[in-house]
Structure formats: C-alpha cells, structure tokens
Amino acid sequence: MSRKPLVGITGRRFRLSLVAGADARYGAACMDTYMSDFATRIARVGAVPVELSYDADPADVCEWLSGVVITGGQDVHPARWGGDVSVVGGIDPRTDPNAHDPERDDYELALVTAAMARGIPVLGVCRGMQVLNVALGGTLVTDLPAGPIAHLSALAAPSNGDVEHVVTFEPGSTAAAVFGDSATTNSWHHQAVDRCGDGIVVSGRTPDGVVEAIEVPGAPILGVQWHPEWMRDDDPALAWVVTESARQEASHVC
C-alpha cells in the first residue's frame, strides 16, 4: 500500500513574547511558527504536511520528504545575492517579524540545494520564489518602484483581496500547464526576481514586466510571487506540488 506524499513546509522562529498575552516568564524562549493555510490546503489535496524546524537537517529530511514548499516572509538578506547590505538593521529577527533572518536564509537555501540534488519537487511562494532564485545564483530587485500596477498593500494581507493583478504565463511552460494562459492573483511583495539564477527561466509576468513565476525546465521546480495559500479558491500551485510529490513517492516504491 502506497503512502501519501510527505510535503515539507518551512516556517519562522520568533520569541514567545510576540504573542499577545504571553507569560513574561517565557523570557527569550522561542517558538517555531507556520502558516496553517499551507498545511490545511496541502492536506486537502492529498498530502501529509510536515512542518520543518531549522533544526531538521536539510539533507536528512530530504531523505524521506516527497516535496518541499518554501514559504513567504521577510526579505532574503542582501549579502546572499550581492545586494546593498546598508538596508539591513541590527535587529534581532526573533523579536521583529520584518527583520532579516540569516538563520532562516541558511536553512532554506540549504533545503533547496538538498531537494534539487534528490530531484524532490519544490514550490517557492513569494519570498520562497526569491529563495529559489538566490539559491541558484540569481539576484533580486531590492524595492519595486511605484508603477501602474500595485504589488504591495499597506492596508491588509492578500487574503482580503485588496490588491489583485493578472499574471500572464509563457506558452509551453510548467506555469502555463498549471494555471492556464493567465490568472488573477493576489499580491503582497515589494521585492522581485531580477537576474535569473542558473537554469531558471521566467514563466510569468504582470503587464508592467514584474516577474511573478519562475521555473527550471526539465525539473519539478516552480516559484510563484503571489500567495496561493491565501487565494479565495484553492490555487493550482499547491495541487501541483502535491501531484509532483506523489510522483516522487511512487518512483521510490519497490
């Protein structure tokens, strides 16, 4: 009997003191946090979600995972891709959700490398798409200039649908096979892919030219700049990573 695919989900590490009403006696104790929408939707389409701690060695977990989702969050540290490090403040990422987090960068970059080495499907979401690009030597746009299309809402998370735009996909791409010729997506980002990393191609853009989807031809690697876990309806991106993960699982069944 075949098992359901196991899909790893990355998260973030914060001090418990950030939780409203937390007992002060926790002091500097930390908690690992994960967006439950990822787990809920991944389970809904047939996989077992596995939340990955920074302490779970990437090479070890990729021995038994069937797929990986690199989730959204704070900016990737510019030192990782040759950006302007003067934008980095000396803030503890455990106490500020928006602070650069070198430990998370290290973990997710290593996880992408380990997953690709084993041919494990990887879906990168928002920051996660940028991590994919940086892992393969690409660069990022530090801060998108104001333009005709809004990419970041100052008012609300994308679950409220106050910032939406159309993404058009390249014919023949994995993205086009998953989403069709185009899709209306949410948007909540101020950075974007600039120069593509080795082997990466752009497969989706908004009308203003901002990169919204990337992939590696011939490999189960897909990145999307929007948040599929917060779309009003189930987004095909999560079904894609589960389907590809099921194929990966089946290929290892004796």
UniProtKB/TrEMBL annotation:
Pfam families: Peptidase_C26. SUPFAM superfamilies: Class I glutamine amidotransferase-like. GO terms for cellular component: cytosol. Keywords: Hydrolase. PROSITE patterns: GATASE_TYPE_1 (PS51273). Gene3D superfamilies: 3.40.50.880. InterPro entries: Class_I_gatase-like, Peptidase_C26, PuuD-like. GO terms for biological process: polyamine catabolic process. GO terms for molecular function: gamma-glutamyl-gamma-aminobutyrate hydrolase activity. This is Gamma-glutamyl-gamma-aminobutyrate hydrolase family protein.
